[in-house]
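Letters spell out the chain; backbone shape is given numerically. Both lines appear below:
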Amino acid sequence: MNLFIDNKSGIPIYEQIYSQIKNLIINGELAEDMPLPSIRNLAKDLHISVITTKRAYDELEKEGFIYTVAAKGCFVAPKNIELLREENLKKIEGYLQGIITLAVSCNLKEEDIISMLHLFYEEG
């Protein structure tokens, strides 16, 4: 598992870890029940505090992306279909907001966007 920490981004490090692992799980790159690196090993590999790594893992567990087995470590949780659906809905909403912003800047009407959407939807 390759994670990248950007110290210049302004995004907290725990949040960067959380987001990257979450995306790997959602995209299927980390399979169900797959073990994650230990909190200590990940902290060592990324040259960060154990507390920071623990916070990222705690957030992932709180949201149902991973689970912990005492004395064994952390593992990828079975995929919660409703949780994945909600994540995808958030992505769609983000894309739609971008489309609306572009459409307004091009003076497109709602009907034009809906027509385009119907064309793309029919194509596949």
Q: What stands out?
A: Helices lie at 13-26, 39-46, 50-62, 81-105, 110-123. The mean pLDDT is 93.
